Amino acid sequence: MTQKTVLPNGIRVITEEIEHVRSVSIGAWVSSGSRYEDESTSGVAHFIEHMVFKGTTNRTAFDIASEIDSVGGVLNAYTGKELTSYYAKVPDYYALGALDLLSDLLRNALFDPLELEKEKFVVFQEIKMLEDTPDDFIHDFFELNFWKNHSLRRSILGSRESVEGLDRNGLIDFFSRRYGGRNIVVAAAGNLKHESFVEQVEKRLRLSPGADGPATDGPPEVSGDLFLQEKDLEQVHVLMGALGPHTSSPDRYAAMLINLVLGGSMSSRLFQEIREKRGLVYSIHSFLVPYSDAGWFGIHFATEKDRVREVSGLVSVELSKLCRESLTAEEIRSGKEQMKGSFLLSMESTDVRMSRLARNEIIFQRQIPVEEVLGNIDSITEEDIRRVAGEMFRPEVLSVAVLGRIPEGYTREFLY
Q1: What is the pTM of this model?
Q2: Do 182 and 280 have their domain in common?
Q3: 196 with 251, same domain?
Q4: Nearest CA to 296 among 414, 164, 152?
Q5: Cβ atoms within 10 A of the Cβ of 158, count?
Q6: Which of 49, 67, 119, 143 is catalytic?
Q7: How distant, in Å, are the alpha carbons of 107, 122, 329 from that of 296?
Q8: Do both 273 and 183 map to the same domain?
Q9: Alpha helix (H) ranges present in 109-235?
Q10: Share above pLDDT 70 across residues of the chain, in percent, rounded to a whole number
Q11: Are residues 21 and 160 in the same domain?
């Protein structure tokens, strides 16, 4: 059973009691990310996520790490473009201890100037690691150019220059604006009681309501383009992308099924045609990246320089087929069963259930029952699939990013 309580300072607390498990997963989800920054503070949301683990008024960095390790638990965090999440998974008898630790991070972080300077070097290494990993870097490179002048273009990590310019006052200013009660959802799933958990959250998270609300720049406008970056790599990496559904779009289910059939699994069209039948790549896959008011659909592969045109053309053929021809009845049936099976299996985990509680609240302001999700998957029609594919893969909004030793004369036009 799920329950929700809104505290006086605006924090929304949502729990799901699962009596038959011996774990509890707790997460604090903050409306904070690179979308809320400007060019001068790019990377500050991610940097704050690092810094809260460097010590609070009650715990040293070692205390924070060892406290969770001592009970066999997990403590981690991540920053996205619109959300930052701090989460823990612990045995049920340590649920309040984990909540106290998470609350301490959100209330009492020191932002020590000496630790701040040391952590800059750590983030510099993270930026370099991204640049040395073309599979990851090409995603940042694509979004930087695809979203053009919109806030979604900014890298979560920031740049070396913007991170170098961060100082304690800037961190505290951003923290005080984004980490208010109205921007926070606390979710927990596992063997716990809602009333007592809410009482402890209210006791420990005495935050102000906060000042800043949602992002205000609105959905972005994009047009198809070609983005090239020379880099000395053994392979050429290509990422094709186009507009996709946002997080609450009714078309999201059809887009998920299209993704599975096109390149979201080893049985998908792209993997079977380009990897298995022709042996042109080691890996090729498609994916969806949804945000609150926009999203994109991507296809990524890497191959030798003299095979780039061939593989790109084969991808284009598959996209064209999706727009012109219906999926087979078996592809639709199999895709739906894969979606439902993956969803149901994921629900065996308390941390996935906790994450789902938070995301449902943030995106839909309600909890979507399992039966409703399964029903939405079953109700995807052939017409939905053809329409959504046609909207996503319009030539005028399909963009291509290429990273590596660029083939001579490579243009976007050869895709059509």
Answers
A1: 0.94
A2: no
A3: no
A4: 152
A5: 25
A6: 49
A7: 35, 30, 26
A8: no
A9: 113-131, 134-146, 160-164, 168-178, 194-204
A10: 97
A11: yes
Alpha carbons 317 and 274: distance in angstroms, whole number: 11
Number of domains in the chain: 2
Q: What is the CATH number of the domain that holds 155?
A: 3.30.830.10
User: Within a domain: residue 216?
Assistant: no
Give the model's confidence band at 221: pLDDT under 50 very low, under 70 low, under 90 confident, else very high.
confident
Strands 399-404 and 226-230: parallel
Looking at the structure, do residues 193 and 231 belong to the same domain, yes or no? no
Give catalytic status of residue 119 as yes or no.
Answer: no
Spatial separation of the C-alpha atoms in residues 287 and 299, rounded to whole Å = 7
Provide the residue type at 322 as one letter: L
Domain boundary residue, one of 174, 204, 234: 204
Residue range of the domain that includes 28 = 2-204
pLDDT tens-digit series, residues 292-344: 999 999 999 999 999 999 999 999 999 999 988 989 999 999 999 999 999 99
For the cut 70, the answer to whether the pLDDT of residue 278 exceeds it is: yes
Mean pLDDT of 251-278: 97
Helices 134-146 and 113-131 cross at an angle (nearest 10°) of: 100
Q: Residues 264, 318: contact at Cβ < 8 Å?
A: no
Residue 185 in domain? yes
Mean pLDDT calculated for residue range 144-170: 95
Q: Measured in whole angstroms, how far is the alpha carbon of residue 73 from the centre of its chain?
A: 23
pLDDT value of residue 215: 66
Largest CA distance in the chain: 65
Instruction: Let me know if residue 219 belongs to a domain.
Output: no
Per-residue pLDDT at 416 exceeds 50: no
Residue 402 corresponds to which amino acid?
V
